[in-house]
Amino acid sequence: VSKLPMQYKFIVDDTWTINRKLPLAQDEHHNENNVLSIPGAAPTSESSISGPDVLVNNLPGILLVKQVLNRLHTRLGRDGYTEISVHFLADDTLAIERRSPDNGHSVWFVVRSAFWRNRMGDGLPSGTQELEVDGTIAHLHVAATLFVGDQHENGYRPDNELITGMECYLHVYGSVHEVATVWTQGSNSRLRLHRFPPGSILVFGTD
């Protein structure tokens, strides 16, 4: 009989809570707990995931993310990442996998549309599914959210001669854990989004 992982929680102001900056695991009741060890696989911690490819944004609009995606798709095509699959996590949230059949590694593109019917705020839709990926999450390429505020909409002036875009703000995250809870389950990793407003993207690679 294998030993159960040592799991624990903290009590803060008479409330059970967890520290999302420390390794996490899920028990048989689907409760999240901090964990000391998991037999056969180490929890995915912030320090075990390299990246991101970019952190400082000095370009307008979504150009920073487009640069990362262009370079990445060029490399994936060259290196034989020919298998593609799509997973629906919610009505407005997709996870696209590009996988190499030669080495079994994958790059995942998780996106949430900024344009959707009946959108009510920035919270995730109820019933948003967790994402299970083969192997461990090894590298963060980019995680970002595009925001358009009232000041951007109010400042927009149409041009009768030129197509002009609206000003916006791109927030770049420095860690997968800023947008999702990640833990290992057997030889696979699981990811649950928790900070992923409309207009968000998360791109990571697995080993």
UniProtKB/TrEMBL annotation:
CDD domains: E_set_AMPKbeta_like_N. Gene3D superfamilies: Immunoglobulins (2.60.40.10). GO terms for molecular function: 4-alpha-glucanotransferase activity; amylo-alpha-1,6-glucosidase activity. InterPro entries: AGL/Gdb1, AGL_central, AMPK1_CBM, Ig-like_fold. GO terms for biological process: glycogen catabolic process. Residues 61-206 form the Glycogen debranching enzyme central domain. Residues 7-38 form the AMP-activated protein kinase glycogen-binding domain. It holds the Pfam family hGDE_central. PANTHER family: GLYCOGEN DEBRANCHING ENZYME. This is AGL protein.
